[in-house]
Design a protein that fits this description.
This protein has 1 helix and 11 strands. By secondary structure, it is mostly beta strands. Strands 1-2-3-5-8-9-10-11 form an 8-stranded antiparallel barrel.
Amino acid sequence: MKRLILLIFISFSALSAQAEEQTVSVELGSASGKTTWTTTDSSLSDFNGQLDHDLTGSAFNIVYTKVKDNNLIWGLGYHSYKIEGTSPVASGDYIVSGTTYPTTIKYGTTLTISGLFAMVGYNLGIGDSFQFLPQVRLGLGNTAKLDTSVDITLAGNSSSGTDSESVSGNTLIIALPFVYKMDDWRFGLQLQSIGAEFTLEYPGEKTVSTLDSAFLLSAGKSF
């Protein structure tokens, strides 16, 4: 990770002159990921694999991009992703001191990641009107927040609870934008592969939520 940060810093220094085109864009779209829940507690072993669920939600980015005469690009921006989901109601037995209690559990998670990012990439022009801009984006010191909720029915008695945890870390994104040029305006679509993970551990159990991908539409203006 330190090498990637250094590479971006060196690239910014090397590309500080000879600007060809600068663009400010807004990117909006959808994002997806997943949550897995595992336990080593034998009293809850029936629920291993039953509480896993997909996460879906939204993505929002604001991006400043500079394209150089040699087609190298660099940029800065802000991104925000929020995805959420809930498991199906899982049924099993909760075992305490040899006594078995019929139990149902529903587990929900919301993962939010936001902060600043830097990016480097390359402009692959396709004729006069289209650009393909593959790039690496690195979110530096991004805030990741995981909200959890659980609904439990144990031997006919129901209860619920919520929890929230936040951490700071880096977010690695491979972005593949396709852009249509119309005078000074830029319109595009973009696929993203994202490496972001939040792990929440308590004695005997672990929740792992990941942000995996996003699809966005963009609009911007060059100057």
